[in-house]
Design a protein that fits this description.
The chain is about 30% helix and about 15% strand. By secondary structure, the protein is α/β, with parallel strands linked by helices. The protein has 2 domains: about 140 residues, Rossmann fold (3-Layer(aba) Sandwich); about 100 residues, 3-Layer(aba) Sandwich (Rossmann fold), CATH 3.40.50.1000. The longest helix has 11 residues.
Length: about 300
């Protein structure tokens, strides 16, 4: 496998007609946009390519749009936003398949207070754990201090009650500033590992990409590229959806590829990481910038 390392996306972009871009880990680090990011998005759009931001955020897109605006990523830099929160709401409310149709109407929210806004958009009644029909998982209640071990007993109790879990964020970890934070996907994996019934919405699953393609208005998948930092969610998800991808390897996988801020990516380590994950991006970059001069 050959995964070329590029300093910027300027040469690659000529092959595509639309860009799908991960948000957390590519656009921002949970605190601020990455250096060179805004200029890059502006130049992509100036080249005539729509930019769709595809996030595993477990909240509907208007809340993410508001946050992005607060940190300077305004609508001037993108065309659409789709979140796993959007996909979760659509799936639970439409109940178009047997799994979602069987959920019941009483939902227990597992996650921080900021994730509770998802429930405002569900055709369900919030209920305590003891009487709920199913769980909506948006993450750890306090991801700054808690670990998965804090949820061992709760997950065991959910298994005893045979509560299905809807995970509204498949991410296992994200970078918040310089810290690695555990996400809802880790809870979902832990529940599934003990035999829990879990359905996840968001990358790498098809429903997230399907909603993104719908918003892009029929642009051929062969002309769309995904830019993301997660091998399991972004890069493998793009492959499943039939589109190319560019891996931002200077984020959650930085230690794996031996990258330090200000340094360069080692092509051999990049290739080894991709081979180990079964991922095949068309290129790798340290960050989403237009050219190496803006990194």
């Amino acid at each position: 496998m050959h995964v070329p390392v590029h300093a910027g996306i300027d040469r690659l972009i000529k092959s595509y007609k639309a860009v799908i871009c991960d948000i957390w880990g590519v656009v921002h680090n949970g605190v601020a946009p990455y250096p060179g990011l805004l200029g890059c998005l502006a130049r992509i759009r100036a080249a005539g390519l729509p930019v769709l931001l595809l996030s595993n955020a477990p909240r509907p897109s208007p809340y993410i749009q508001e946050f992005l605006g607060d940190i300077g990523v305004t609508e001037a830099y993108y065309d659409h936003i789709v979140t796993s929160g959007d996909v979760t709401v659509a799936a639970i409310n439409r109940r178009a398949d047997a799994w979602h149709a069987g959920l019941g109407r009483k939902v227990f929210h597992l996650g921080p207070d900021r994730g509770r806004v998802l429930l405002d958009h569900l055709d369900c009644e919030e209920a305590p754990f003891e009487t709920a029909d199913f769980i909506v998982n948006t993450g750890l209640v306090d991801d700054e201090t808690e670990t998965l071990e804090d949820y061992r007993d709760m997950l065991a109790g959910a298994l005893t009650r045979k509560l299905p879990m809807v995970c509204a964020n498949p991410d296992v970890v994200v970078m918040r500033g310089e810290r690695m934070i555990t996400c809802a996907g880790a809870l979902a994996r832990a529940y599934a590992d003990i035999g829990g019934d879990v359905f996840q919405h968001g990358k790498p699953h098809a429903s997230a990409f399907d909603m993104a393609f719908e918003r892009l208005g029929g642009i051929s998948r062969g002309h769309i590229v995904m830019v993301g930092d997660g091998l399991e969610t972004d890069i493998k998800g793009a492959a499943r959806a039939g589109i190319d991808s560019v891996w931002i390897a200077g984020g959650i996988h930085a230690e794996e590829v031996g990258y330090t801020p200000g340094g360069k990516l080692d092509e051999a380590k990049v290739r080894a990481a991709c081979e180990a994950a079964g991922a095949r991006p068309v290129a790798a970059m340290t960050a989403l910038v237009w050219s190496g001069d803006e990194a």
